[in-house]
Amino acid sequence: MFEATTILAYRADDYAVIGGDGQVTFGNAVLKGNATKIRTLYNGQVLAGFAGSTADAFNLFDMFEGFLQSRKGDLLKAVIDFSKAWRKDKVLRRLEAMMIVLNNDHIFILSGTGDVVEPEDGRIAAIGSGGNFAISAARALARHADMDPKALIEESLRIAADLCIYTNHNIKTLELKK
Fold first, then answer.
1. Which residues are CB-contacts of 117 (< 8 A; sequence separation ≥ 6)?
2. Is residue 61 classed as helix, strand or coil in its secondary structure?
3. To 10 degrees, the CA torsion angle through 144, 105, 75, 9?
4. For every residue of 6-27, which 3-state class applies, written as one string?
5. Beta 116-117 vs 38-41: how paired, if at all?
6. What is the pTM of this model?
7. Torsion angle (degrees, nearest 10) of CA 131, 26, 35, 129
8. Which one, of 170, 172, 168, lies nearest residue 130 by Cα?
9. Exposed e or buried b for every residue in 62-85, given b needs 16+ CB within 10 A?
10. Active-site residue among 5, 54, 167, 173?
11. Is the dihedral of CA 107, 30, 54, 174 positive or negative?
12. How far apart are CA 108 and CA 34, in angstroms?
């Protein structure tokens, strides 16, 4: 199975940023080290990233962007409609991928079973095999360091890459500013 791993997102009051590493593995081998697992959606107004099966994730991106278009970029409504459609579709419920989607107002984790989770703090979310390492680092840095959100994401992903064998240091980020 192809795996695409660590994604970390942070939403501040006037700033949203998402980052991901570049590693794609096939079983226990690195297949690609410079993959792009994050992208902008809806004319650059929404950020998204995926972890899991690459083919499944591309299908999810396309499907989710369709819901964003039909809801005129309203992220909350698009997430709800997407979740409903995902749960009703027998094929989609078997997808092995997760997504994080965010804008300046909301951040959500979308699971492979159709679940929608808004992080408890509404600010930091992570997925993938290095997700727990990345979110731990991000929470600590957010509490104890005076860093801008992009630097916080980059440093947290570097820490995750030092710990997780499925995460590398080829980090890419995307930002939204109000």
1. 108, 109, 111
2. helix
3. -20
4. CEEEEECCCEEEEEECCCEEEC
5. unpaired
6. 0.93
7. 0
8. 168
9. eebbebbeebeebbeebbebbbee
10. 5
11. positive
12. 25
pLDDT at 7 over 90: yes
> What is the distance between the alpha carbons of residues 136 and 123, in angstroms, rounded to a whole number?
13
Q: What is the mean pLDDT of residues 66-82?
A: 95
Higher pLDDT, 51 or 20: 20
DSSP 74: -
Whether the Cβ atoms of residue 53 and residue 96 lie closer than 8 Å to each other: yes
Residue 51 token pair = 């972890």
Beta bridge partners of 52: 4, 97
Amino acid at site 97: A
Helix, strand, coil tally for the chain in percent (to 5): 35, 30, 35
Q: What is the pLDDT of residues 105-121, one digit of tens each?
A: 999 999 867 789 999 99
Taking the alpha carbons at both ends of the chain, their separation in whole angstroms is 39
Percent residues over pLDDT 70 in the chain: 94
Q: Based on the residue annotation, tell me whether 5 is a catalytic residue of this protein.
A: yes
What distance in Å separates the CA atoms of residue 111 and residue 113, rounded to the nearest whole number? Answer: 5
- Say how far apart CA 53 and CA 116 lie, in whole Å: 18
Return the amino acid letter for 101. V
Amino acid at 28: N
